Amino acid sequence: MAVELETIVSLCKRRGFIFQSSEIYGGLGGAWDYGPLGVELKKNLKCAWWRDNVYARDDMEGLDAAILMHPRVWEASGHVAGFTDPLVDCKQCKKRFRADHVSGPGCPECGGELTEPRAVQFDVQDLSSARWSERSGPCLPAAGDGTGDFRQLSRTCSTRRAAKLPFGIAQIGKAFRNEITPRHFTFRTREFEQMEIEYFVPPASADEWFDYWVKERYRWYLKYGMRPDHLRLRQHGPEELAHYARATYDVEYRFPMGWLELEGIAHRGDFDLKAHAQASGRNLTYFDDRTRERYFPYVIEPSAGVDRAALAFLVDAYREEEVRGRRRVVLRLHPALAPIKVAVLPLLRNRAEVVELARKLYADLRRRFPADYNDTGAIGKLYARQDEVGTPFCVTVDVQTLEDHQVTVRDRDTTEQVRLALDQVVAYLQDKLAVD
Ligand code: ATP
């Protein structure tokens, strides 16, 4: 079943995942607010990425570089160079034109296909509140432009785990792009978040590491339950490659509006370190003990959009199905991504002892997992509300619980129920929610 983007937009609005920014003033194009459930989904995605790429690896360290940087950083990375008007690039002959100078649909010189218009209207040096990224330049300063940090990092890291190449820096942060036509909900916006890795490697093994990261990043989406037939890798052709890139792959997702990029993995060669070494006059080379050679490390850069990943996981998880004669909407989100992990639902809200017990259980669970409590309706309705936001487990407390101290735990996907002793609920959930 193919879900329409509108269905997801309306679910997000109705249930408080994502809604229009500045709505009471008519909204602001390309800006979206994440409500209580959206925040959790996004946070879970970032935590999963951080856990897998920083905590679970010996060769990676985290970084949170300042958004404000020395103006010369922006110069060296090529961001300042005179972009003031919306520009389009010809995918064929690679010439760049002012969008308002192009009259027909194709390139004025060779007739080739043009990219979307983009502009840099901010003055980068005045951009004191924003991390700037522009189509053809490196993205987050910490990752792309922040490769200047390589010097510091290679020193700091040598006292820790990642003393030698290859090693990587991981960073998550806001990025801003002056998209001329923000669209497709949160897919293309002016403000978004990126999760980026700068992985520094010896030039001799850069191609192998590039292959490794392309596969690794593709696998990551599958690990969190994305349907394999909705995910693919696409290599950039020579006409599409950015000027700094030796090769690039996109991880693409089959969105309702077509196959579109979730993440780009770029083989950047020594572009960044060379540019920053030249501009700063600092030595950013690395001495390889093993080969007794000195060189600029090459950089492999997997760069993922948090918002696009969140949207793709929502689309992928959405199902309308019939279970035991009842129609339901369910988000089959991976438990690690689900905003609420468990909901406690008393079956009899008029029985004070049942409510009291349910509240006690809820108080206990919420210290360990993002949890919810609801006694405002019939159980069918309460389950439906949790299914619709992807809560993997619901625990019901009933009259029987008062006698046998057992509760019923219902699984979102199978709707199957198990009866468990109250004091086993935490261990049961911990086991079910564990991620390897
Ligand atoms: P596109 O071609 O779709 O504009 P890009 O190739 O310019 O994307 P990158 O520079 O590779 O994008 O940025 C890395 C990631 O950041 C993208 O894969 C995407 O997930 C995210 N991203 C880029 N631009 C936007 C945007 N305007 N809105 C939301 N996410 C974005």
Distance between the termini: 30 Å
Count of beta strands: 20
Strand content: 25-35%
Put simply, the count of helices is: 11
Spans of at least 5 consecutive residues with low confidence: 120-145, 157-162
> Strand order across the biggest sheet?
3-6-7-13-10-9-8
CATH class assignment of the largest domain: Alpha Beta
Mean of residue pLDDT?
87
Q: Structural class given helices, strands, pairing? A: alpha+beta
Tell me the CATH superfamily of the largest domain: Bira Bifunctional Protein, Domain 2
Main sheet record: 7 strands, mixed
The distinct bound ligands, ions and cofactors come out as: adenosine-5'-triphosphate
**CATH fold group of the largest domain:** BirA Bifunctional Protein, domain 2
Percentage of helical residues?
25-40%
How many distinct folded domains? 2
Rg (C-alpha, Å)? 25 Å
Shape, per Cα inertia axes: globular
Question: TL;DR of this structure?
Answer:
The protein has eleven helices and 20 strands.
Descriptive terms for the model:
globular, binds adenosine-5'-triphosphate, 20 strands, BirA Bifunctional Protein, domain 2, Rossmann fold, 29% helix, 436 residues, 5-stranded mixed β-sheet, alpha+beta
Give a description of the structure:
The protein is an alpha+beta fold and 436 residues long. The protein has 11 helices and 20 strands. It has helices spanning 5-14, 36-55, 71-76, 150-158, 206-223, 271-280, 306-317, 352-366, 379-388, 399-404, 425-433; strands at 18-20, 32-34, 60-62, 87-89, 96-98, 167-176, 191-201, 231-235, 247-255, 258-267, 286-288, 293-295, 298-305, 318-323, 326-331, 342-346, 371-373, 393-397, 406-411, 417-421. It is globular and about 75 Å long. The site of adenosine-5'-triphosphate has 17 residues, from strand 7, strand 10, strand 13 and helix 7.
